[in-house]
Amino acid sequence: MADDLPLAGRGCIVTGGSRGIGAAVVRLALAQGADVVFGYHSDEKRARALAEELSAAHPGRACVPLYAQVADAGEAGRFATAALGHLDRFDVLVNNAGVTRDTLFARMGPQQWHEVIATNLDSMYTVTKPLLMPLVKQRGGAIINISSSSGLHGIPGQTAYSAAKAGVIGFTKALAKEIGARGVTVNAVAPGLIATDMTAAIPQDKAEFLKSLIPGHAFGSPEDVAHLVCFLASDRARYITGQAIEVSGGLVV
Ligand code: NDP
């Protein structure tokens, strides 16, 4: 393992890789030597442009975009099977796809609740399920699930999201115990406020208030999260499992 290529030869599957944190993970994993298949949902054009750019930058490495609807078990299964078919070997799963539908609980309709739970939490089942046995049989690999500070602390206006992201942490800790003996690590990464399309939707006055809760008074970058994800994906983190690690600049909520 070259020092600067800690993911050399590793095959990675990343959901929600077309934008934001997922795209930063795809970018960094390739730069660290991995082959990557990533999912997109609504924005095929953006996903293809990213794959073209990264394939040109890293000749000889796979960078493949595939359609994925992680809220649906059938679609997720088709994505997983197709993703495996594009990789010589499979070592790392990053469950990153997610959505917010922020509103006070008193105003929340059932559709908002179900969409948030399906995309952020059901996806832990739909995507991980078909990809688990290949890792277990191989007796090695890493699963990294993207949670949120919202799941650790609870954030008003995010009851469904907080519930889903707390569920991601419970899932992570239980699965880590189930498959630890097979050499597969399972960890959660909990970002705070990261500058992506997701947080661009926050109204200016609320964004300023949220920044005042961060010791450095600034949102993090997708790369701040990607560095931890890629570390957890590498052999350097082989003795870290069942953890939920916050990347929030010390956000206090
Ligand atoms: P973005 O909104 O920038 O990107 C979301 C990604 O998820 C896109 O690639 C999108 O695909 C994909 N996606 C959305 N819905 C689905 C679906 N149903 N099936 C498959 N893919 C889907 O979000 P971020 O990069 O900010 O967030 C990434 C993860 O980090 C999420 O899990 C989020 O909850 C979490 N997070 C983000 C924080 C932040 O401050 N930004 C804070 C804490 C956690 P497409 O582009 O094709 O629509």
From TrEMBL:
<dbReference type="InterPro" id="IPR036291">
    <property type="entry name" value="NAD(P)-bd_dom_sf"/>
</dbReference>
<dbReference type="InterPro" id="IPR057326">
    <property type="entry name" value="KR_dom"/>
</dbReference>
<dbReference type="Pfam" id="PF13561">
    <property type="entry name" value="adh_short_C2"/>
</dbReference>
<dbReference type="InterPro" id="IPR020904">
    <property type="entry name" value="Sc_DH/Rdtase_CS"/>
</dbReference>
<dbReference type="InterPro" id="IPR050259">
    <property type="entry name" value="SDR"/>
</dbReference>
<protein>
    <submittedName>
        <fullName>3-oxoacyl-[acyl-carrier-protein] reductase</fullName>
    </submittedName>
</protein>
<dbReference type="InterPro" id="IPR002347">
    <property type="entry name" value="SDR_fam"/>
</dbReference>
<comment type="similarity">
    <text>Belongs to the short-chain dehydrogenases/reductases (SDR) family.</text>
</comment>
<feature type="domain" description="Ketoreductase">
    <location>
        <begin position="10"/>
        <end position="197"/>
    </location>
</feature>
